[in-house]
What does this fold into?
Amino acid sequence: MKILVTGANGYLGQGIVKKLLDDGYEVIAADLSTEHIDKRALKVSCDLFKVQDPYKYFSLPDILLHLAWNNGFVHNSDSHILELPQHYLFLKNMIDSGISRLCIMGTMHEIGFYEGSIKEDTPCFPQSNYGVAKNALRQSIGIIAKNNNVIFQWLRGFYIVGNNEFGNSIFSKITTAEAKGESLFPFTLGLNQWDFIDYNDFCLQTAAAVEQDDINGIINICSGRPEKLADRVERFIKENNFKIKLDYGKYPDRSYDSKAVWGDNSKIERIMKFGE
It folds into this structure.
């Protein structure tokens, strides 16, 4: 099986590409830059939105895993809305040209303010440009995929924990601050409870979902349980033997963040059992 991975040079792409390669798949890894991508992949440096006839350009892949997205941690950036049509046209072109399986990385921010377990049929009322754009892409491409009998997976990602200092999450920022020798990290009160999933587990779950087609639709990439933000960050600091301390109460919570939210992991648990 030949899998085209867009956004392959990004924080998520690097680990997911490696896992797919480890599992024996042929990977075409596309991004503006390809310097951090596993050498076993066929690297293609390009601007996705400027490629003519992308299905042929990328050698007729069997599966498309679309990770490409700008400013994922800048939730109200104008880029989410402005670039949405380009994502739509690229994906529509791939469907029209003959791609048979389409997997797209989504986000729990599509849901908006919500408390409890997020299921496949949980209503979406996004509260940021990021959530609005992702949700619109899910709905629009889902319709086209259905009308063209394309197998469609929407991989709804939750909160990823990793110590890569080049990411944009709070965990990456703490890692960077530690590397700079800073003693305090300005923080909220950390009372919100979210679904945290370790980076390696996130890549493992994503690859497992893409590598099968028995379970499709919206698939939560998650741990399936909530944990208080302060507890997870304190544990992260301890796990990595960092010396930095949290400076509580320096920032307010974001108004659109849920107080307690986690993913229903029943579908991904079934998928993971396939490989046992």
